[in-house]
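User: I'm preparing a small set of examples for a lab meeting where we compare how different chains pack in three dimensions. I only have the primary sequence for this one, and I'd like the structure in token form so I can line it up with the others. Please keep the answer compact; I'll paste it straight into my notes.
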Amino acid sequence: MSNELEERLDAIFQAVRDFAQDRVAELVRRGGGEVDRAELVGLLPESVLRAVPEDRWTELDLGPTATIEARLAGRGPTTPS
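Assistant: Understood. Below is the structure token output for the 81-residue chain.
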């Protein structure tokens, strides 16, 4: 995959994730609730992680071990066999 294409896909992923998280939190607040955090299902590219402000990582269930690169390098969580 070309670097330009990867950057565009990363930007799209980030925008969709931010919109979804913020929209869900808004709807929950309207209903009188509060979202403490989200859960990432799967992995994300390291470039996307770097684009997310670190102060939102806990809220969005992100971190250095949640990346594709960390999994490939053996630093991320593994699936039980």
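A couple of notes for your slides: The chain has a mean pLDDT of 81. The chain has one domain: 3-72.

User: Perfect, thanks.
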